[in-house]
Design goal:
Strand order of the largest sheet: 1-2-3-4
Order of helices and strands: EEEEHHEEEEHH
Number of helices: 4
Helix content: 25-40%
Shape: globular
Distance between the termini: 31 Å
Radius of gyration: 18 Å
């Protein structure tokens, strides 16, 4: 699996590992984090359905007729609205693999951040405008407490989610099917 390019130059791979029922049949995934090919942490026990749901919401937000299209003309700025309020609204947060795990086993979260850049003559207050942009910030902390960060457009987030879900499908976990069933 191709990893996310982090701001510090490292690569973060998020590898779905099948969770199996008593008969050995894969039914969901846990995420293994690898930084530059080295184990970094494990998070998100049975989180595939959440990622599949987010992938669907990202695709809907990027669509031309979406509610986000009116406010964000550039499709790369269009993201689904996060579930809860907050200064840094989260699209997902997986803080450990299982409830019994220590908090130091890893963390993976994705927040939305909005930035503004002045487009116009430098130092001028007239003849320009503010260009706002939204980006997904994916942050991961390893078991050793060290963190990495990647900043993604909505297209890059959609591609990342698609890769994780495709890898889960190849592993037999069936997160897409599971997500569709649980939505009913």
């Amino acid at each position: 699996m191709r990893g996310l390019r982090c701001l510090d130059g490292s690569s973060l791979a998020v590898v779905p590992v099948p969770a199996r029922d008593r008969s050995g049949t894969p039914y969901e995934v846990t995420l293994e984090l690898r930084r530059d090919g080295v184990s970094f942490g494990a998070v998100g026990e049975r989180c595939g359905h959440l990622l599949a749901g987010l992938a669907e919401r990202v695709a809907a937000a990027r669509a031309a007729g979406s509610p986000q299209a009116a406010r964000w003309p550039d499709p790369d700025d269009r993201f689904p609205e996060p579930a809860g309020p907050g200064r840094e609204p989260e699209l997902f947060a997986f803080r450990y693999r299982e409830r019994a795990d220590l908090a130091s086993t890893g963390e993976l979260r994705c927040t939305l951040r909005t930035s503004a850049t002045w487009v116009g003559p430098p130092g001028a207050t007239a003849g320009g405008r503010w260009r706002t942009a939204r980006r997904a910030v994916v942050e991961a902390w390893g078991a050793g407490g060290r963190g990495v960060r990647a900043v993604l457009t909505s297209a890059e987030l959609a591609r990342f989610l698609g890769e994780v879900l495709a890898e889960a499908e190849r592993a037999g976990a069936g997160c897409r099917v599971h997500a569709a069933r649980s939505a009913r």
